[in-house]
Specification:
Blueprint lengths: L2 E6 L4 H15 L3 E8 L12 H19 L4 E6 L8 H14 L3 E5 L9 H16 L8 H4 L9 E5 L6 E4 L4 H9 L7 H22 L6 E7 L14
Parallel strand pairs: 1-2, 1-4, 2-3, 4-5
Antiparallel strand pairs: 5-7, 6-7
């Protein structure tokens, strides 16, 4: 793997779902890119802040968090936070970024997570899956080819925050980087809530490690599939 594209709905989802794995990939020489679909503008209950201020704060926090993991390549689509729709504009933009970045693998949220109610997560995961399947087909969004953007076939898509993992990553050496990256999102995680979140994810990571092989203390898990299996595959959940 030479290049990975992490597609997230909001500016903190990559760190939460795969922060330690991101740090591990960067340390091994993988070229990691972030693609953030929404602007994060709904991520505050502080009435003293304008939506523009929230967006600017969250982008700043994203860059601080990414830097802690070794990430410095960002792509922003700036769709309104909390109001994401599956439409041609979103599909075309995701395909366009994939064709420009040309990743070997895409990481994103699992849109089929049980009891997931956030539409931004559901739509991001599903449209990212669609884009992973179609980015190599020149008949989709041919106008991009006229701009010199060539089709690109993705080898695999990896879903984080999933109920049905098939891959487990030992992240012992990188766990503290993940926690520090989460802490960089100060507008989202402070005080008792930050303590709850970090404890929750630490416990989950230890449970995942035990589920994997028990040879590490912390692990992150993913459902990884080649795009060809993302259509009419009744066995996908068990793969």
């Amino acid at each position: 793997m030479k290049r990975a594209l992490f597609i997230q709905p909001h500016p903190d989802d990559n760190e939460i779902g795969a922060g330690a794995t991101i740090a591990k990939l960067v340390s091994s020489g993988v070229d990691v890119h972030y693609l953030t679909v929404t602007d994060g503008g709904s991520g505050s209950n502080d009435a003293n802040l304008s939506t523009r201020e929230v967006i600017d704060n969250r982008r700043k926090e994203q860059k601080e968090a990414g830097a802690l993991l070794g990430v410095n390549k960002y792509h922003w689509l700036d769709f309104p936070d909390g109001h994401l729709y599956d439409n041609e504009e979103l599909r075309a933009k995701l395909v366009g970024v994939i064709r420009k970045v040309r990743p070997d693998i895409i990481f994103t949220v699992d849109p089929w997570l049980s009891y997931e109610t956030h539409m931004d997560h559901i739509i991001t995961g599903k449209v990212a899956s669609f884009a992973a399947r179609t980015s190599g087909n020149f008949r989709f969004y041919p106008e991009q080819l006229q701009e010199g953007i060539k089709p690109h076939s993705v080898q695999a898509i990896a879903y984080y925050t999933t109920n049905n993992p098939n891959t487990f990553i030992n992240v012992d050496r990188f766990w503290e980087q993940k926690i520090k990256a989460i802490q960089a999102h100060k507008s989202q995680f402070t005080g008792e809530y930050l303590t709850f979140v970090t404890n929750y994810f630490a416990n989950k990571a230890m449970q995942i490690a035990n589920q994997a092989d028990g040879e590490c203390r912390y692990a992150e898990c993913f459902k990884i599939l080649p795009p060809i299996l993302l259509h009419s595959n009744v066995d996908a959940i068990d793969m």
